[in-house]
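Dear Dr. L.,

I hope this message finds you well. Following up on our conversation about the binding site, I have prepared a predicted three-dimensional model of the protein together with pantoate. For your records, I am including the exact sequence and ligand specification that went into the calculation, followed by the structure tokens. Please feel free to forward this to your student if that is useful.
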Amino acid sequence: MLIARTLPDLRAACLRLRRHAEALAFVPTMGALHAGHRSLVARAVASGAATVASIFVNPLQFGPNEDLSRYPRDEPGDLGALEAEGCALAWLPNVATMYPPGEATAVLVRGPAERWEGDARPDHFLGVATVCAKLFGQVRPDRAYFGEKDWQQLQVVRRMVTDLLLPLEIVGVETVREDDGLALSSRNRFLTAAERAVAPALVRALRGVAERVGYGEPAAAPLAEARAALAAKGFGVDYVALVDGTTLAPLERDAPGARLIAAAKLGSVRLIDNIRIG
Ligand code: PAF
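The resulting structure of the complex is given below.
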């Protein structure tokens, strides 16, 4: 696996890969890779493309009350995982490369970036969209792979790619879960043993709502009951909502492409999850 840490090295490595591969696939990450990230790389590699993965903990998507320094980092472990999945090139830029001195440009996505995570984490999607636009410009992939776990992020990136006419395809990959249903996340490691035991209640609550809404029941009562049940288990519920899967606008009942989304805090860890209906 090639490793690039500067833009000239990245450009040379991408040119080299392009000479032999019919397509370049890209998996952007912030490191601390788990089986969910590995599944993105595996999907990209299985598509036959030469696969590039980036590791960059993006300061712009962290709010003032979110602890950037606490974000888990494990470069040797991450590089080993990428290589094991067949990644051809790891791109590890530093902050000065991504945000040159005097930088004055950011990408603001409205629509799907408003509400939910957009309300809870002001400017989070500004940071995500900006860094993704930069990474896409650097790597120039034919397709980029994103986990469905961050459903709203996936829709924000799709909207940005459509609106900025960027020449790549965005591929969503299904969430990887533990046996008890908990969605994999780099933040799960911060759960205490007691919190870890309770955490799968989040997806179970979503599944309960999905069943009722899928049978045609209006969403309001099942959503309110799910919020109350989660609060009773000790979650600080931010939202549990039924939304249009593309625009993230709230829905009152099931509709084609509908998605159930949730965010709730357990101790110091904010968990998010989502499922489709049916
Ligand atoms: O999902 C993530 O890990 C990050 O938001 C991403 C897409 C790598 C941008 O920093």
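In brief: Residues 28-30, 58, 61, 128, 131-132, 150, 153 surround pantoate (CB under 6 Å).

With kind regards,
A. P.
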